[in-house]
Amino acid sequence: MKKTEGKKADMSQEKDKVTRPAKSPARKCQGVTARGTPCCFPPLNGHEFCLWHSPDPQVQERAKLAAKKGALTSMPRHLPADHPAATIRSVDEALVMVEETLQQVRIGALSPNVGNSVFYGISVASKLLELQVLDQLESLEAAIGVKLTRREPA
Fold it and tell me: What is residue 16's predicted lDDT score, i.e. its pLDDT?
């Protein structure tokens, strides 16, 4: 073996030491699953148990919160098919829809993502209502022959 080949091998090994952390044995939770098998989750820092098996009441509260947040993903992602069609032809109808959607999201009957989509639709509809009112105003101005001064919408 040539002298340069030995240096290349040494440099390669040295590079591996720098980029790869030393392997440490993976710690496992000391808990047992409902099936009687050892838990495969890593324990919390400074504890022997994972989030789900810890006997600590504060950790159990965190586990309940995590389960509850996970339950949010199982919420309905859409409205039921028999839900009445959305009509926004006035400000009052838009306000009613905002109130209904907020209440559905608050009680967990509707996903926040769906609620956001509804609110976006309401904002587009309100802009269209505003444009409709401006068209009506221009028609009235033309009919009476007067041009009113008003500020332009933002």
Answer: 46
